[in-house]
Amino acid sequence: MKLRKKSGAIWLLAVLLFCSAAFWGFNRDERNFEISKNLNIYYTLFRELNLFYVDEIDPGDLVKKSMDAMLSTLDPYTTYISESEIEDFKLMTTGEYAGIGSLISKHKDEVIIAEPYEGFPAFKAGLKAGDVLLEINGTPVSKKSTDDVSSLLKGQPNVPLTIKIMRPGVDKTMEKKLVRENIQLKSVPYYGMVSDSIGYILLNQFTDKASGEIKAALKELKEQNAKSIVLDLRGNPGGLLDQAIEIVNLFVDKGEDIVSTKGKVSQWDKSYTATKTPFDAKIPIAVLVNRGSASASEIVSGAIQDLDRGIIIGERTFGKGLVQTTRNLTYNAKLKVTTAKYYIPSGRCIQALDYSHRNEDGSVGKIADSLITEFHTKNGRSVYDGGGVLPDLKIESERYSSLSINLIRHFLVFDYATLYANSHDKIADAKEFKISDQEFEKFSQYIKEQKFVYESESTEILDALKKSAKEEKYFDISTNEFDALTAKLTPNLDRDLTRFKDEISDLLAHEIIKRFYYQNGGIEYSLKEDKTLLKAIEVLQDKNEYLGILDGSIGLHALNK
């Protein structure tokens, strides 16, 4: 009897296993059929389109757009990288490319040198910001796109180039001869002492050399008597995960948890700990962040915060807690695909809860309290998920006026700096240079001569409000109020130049300084009155406040929720 029951149970189990296997196989076959069917539909659609569409189509461009549109429905970071874009992808991950070492930009119908990098071919050949590119090795480039011009400037190293330019303020065209070189952009473009005992390091990307450059900067700063460190990650969009781990490891003891990843495929479930002896596990640290600090920047700042290893100052970070892996495709193309989410030591994921609805600048918007979960740092301080890393000390970034934004957008600050640099041999030191009242008056006159006009967002909103008021028949009873608002909000160049003189002078000085002292000079100037940096210096100099934030006795972080 027992044997019969046991035998029946075995048969039942076998039937269940068979059914589930058949069901799984059916689902798998059905899924494969759906894939095959839809790919066949896509192929036939494209064939008919190519044959019968009224105009000629570019097959490569059309297919790429269709793939981009498909991937955009998933998340913002899963992307197709065509063979022609591989060099740009390599630049993002290694900071390396072969070219002339310069930023280029589109200005009206021309492509110009926007910024030559000090020490590279463009710099050595005497190319300057503002130079208009006319020909490259005899090929006219007028009215070409920046991508087309970039393709001509980049290529195999050790290849000579002859570049014909027109320099604003100079009557004759000029020819510059140079040779392409392998360009290695620095992940740490600047570091130095910002007080007698505080060192500052700016990290602008997480390439494969980032941790090495940070370590070298730390070593030199300590030799200059640095007792505390400011690590600036503002505007840093991220990069390689392993570099974020190694940078955190410079400051935390061996064995500390740094980050873990979890994905649909178990091979992406990994935990990363500090595996090396730290460079300095005790030195006080302040990490500067803003809404442009993303991905690897958030791993570093989040881990430093969760381990109570340093203080975070600035704004809520971007909120990108997704890990991407590159997969090789045919014809040298790649798929960068989101494979996992990452979690920092407290257990929180900093991925924005809704990455499809962000602020205009891409940062995390308002999050309902009911959606936020509380976690705790190593010392027991409260930290929260929901999107991004919240700073311990919140400092809002300064916002520019509509006038300043439009002066930049229309290249008027840039063009005036070009003319200024081409008519001056030298200027004062980057930390000392400033725009005089006389120079500001010259600039004001210059933009008026350019017939500059601009709009403001306030007037656009007011116009929309007027339209709604008229449609709803409220306008007639509010005419006086609308007239008063119109008078106040309508752009007035003379009034706004006076009102925003300080910030416009600052922008102009910064642009001029970069013409004479290049990137380092521009950074030095911008740090002079940097509110976030000044706050970091203040806290690092006050041991009680620094330690009070880390042990939770000064509970500022909770106020930023």
* Whole-number count of domains: 3
> Residue ranges: pLDDT <50 for 5 or more in a row?
1-24, 557-561
Helical residues, percent: 40-55%
Alpha-beta classification: alpha+beta
CATH class of the largest domain: Alpha Beta
Evaluate the radius of gyration.
29 Å
Mass-distribution shape: globular
Largest pleated sheet: 6 strands, mixed
* Count, helices: 17
- Spatial order of the strands forming the largest sheet: 10-11-12-15-16-21
> Which percent range describes the beta-strand content?
15-25%
CATH topology type of the largest domain: 2-enoyl-CoA Hydratase, Chain A, domain 1
So, the CATH homologous superfamily of the largest domain?
A: 2-enoyl-CoA Hydratase, Chain A, domain 1
In whole angstroms, how far apart are the ends? 67 Å
Number of strands: 21
**What is the CATH architecture assignment of the largest domain?**
Alpha-Beta Complex
The pLDDT mean sits at: 87
Pfam family, one: Peptidase_S41
Domain PDZ: 88-154
Protein name: Peptidase S41
Family: Belongs to the peptidase S41A family.
Write a concise synopsis of the structure shown:
The chain is built from 17 helices and 21 strands. By secondary structure, it is α+β, with helices and mostly antiparallel strands. The chain has three domains: 96-184, Roll (Pdz3 Domain), CATH 2.30.42; 190-397, Alpha-Beta Complex (2-enoyl-CoA Hydratase, Chain A, domain 1), CATH 3.90.226.10; 402-536, no CATH class.
Sequence-ordered SSE layout with sheet pairings:
Layout: H1 2-52, H2 59-72, E1 79-81, H3 86-94, E2 96-99, E3 102-107, E4 110-116, H4 121-124, E5 132-136, E6 139-140, H5 146-153, E7 160-166, E8 173-179, E9 181-184, E10 190-193, E11 198-202, H6 210-223, E12 228-232, H7 241-249, E13 257-263, E14 270-273, E15 285-289, H8 296-306, E16 311-314, E17 322-328, E18 334-343, E19 374-376, E20 382-384, E21 393-394, H9 402-409, H10 412-422, H11 437-449, H12 457-471, H13 479-489, H14 493-499, H15 501-527, H16 531-541, H17 543-551
Parallel strand pairs: 11-12, 12-15, 15-16, 16-21
Antiparallel strand pairs: 1-18, 2-9, 3-4, 5-6, 5-7, 7-8, 10-11, 13-14, 13-18, 17-18, 19-20
Helix pairs in contact: 6-7, 7-8, 10-15, 12-13
